[in-house]
Amino acid sequence: MFKIAVLISGNGSNLEAIINACKNNIINGSVDIVISNNPDAYGIQRAKNHSLNYKIIDNKKFETREDFDRALVEELKYSNPDLIVLAGFMRILTPVVIEAFKNKIINIHPSLLPKYPGLDTHNSVIKNGDLKHGVTIHFVNEVLDGGQIIAQGELSVNPNETEKQLKRRIHSIEHILLPKIVSKFADGSIDVNNIIYEVF
Ligand code: GAR
User: Fold this and answer.
1) If you take atom 7 of ligand 1, which residue's CA is the nearest one?
2) Domain with 178 in it: what CATH number?
3) Active site residue 122
4) Which residue's alpha carbon is nearest to atom 8 within ligand 1?
């Protein structure tokens, strides 16, 4: 069985989308563990609701990024997942994690990378009057939001659209695209030389 580890920091709606896709056999695999760096993340409740194995590794309890990452690697090695999905995991990973799970970590980011790496993407799109916005799923490397792009989903920004409205529409794209890409990993059908591009 294809084992997935999902790392979260907050709401966990993308986690929920992955869980549901596993349950509905859209993903031929299962979520083996959910790890949160934030003890208050609502995503932990979602993991509990689905009786999933979860672990809180509170980053505030570690002195350095590397110390936190070592604890993360230990937990991940115990699960030994085929794929690690960063689904709203708001931490930059050091080579401690990247090297331990080379080409096995993917991230979903709410922008059309390479545009707007980092935080506050929806606001930047509105402030700059962009006509397009979207989401990117990419491999994770040492560069923030800089790994090889696997898939992107794009939408047109509506006139006078608020940040809240945009965020909601981005989320609905994420909930379609992320399970779709994870399912391709589970089937072994990801071709990294062929970016999947969709317009919603
Ligand atoms: C998602 O929009 C995801 O793209 C973003 O956080 C949100 C998490 O939502 N990730 C990042 O900004 C990472 N740089 P969720 O907790 O409801 O899945």
Assistant:
1) 88
2) 3.40.50.170
3) no
4) 88
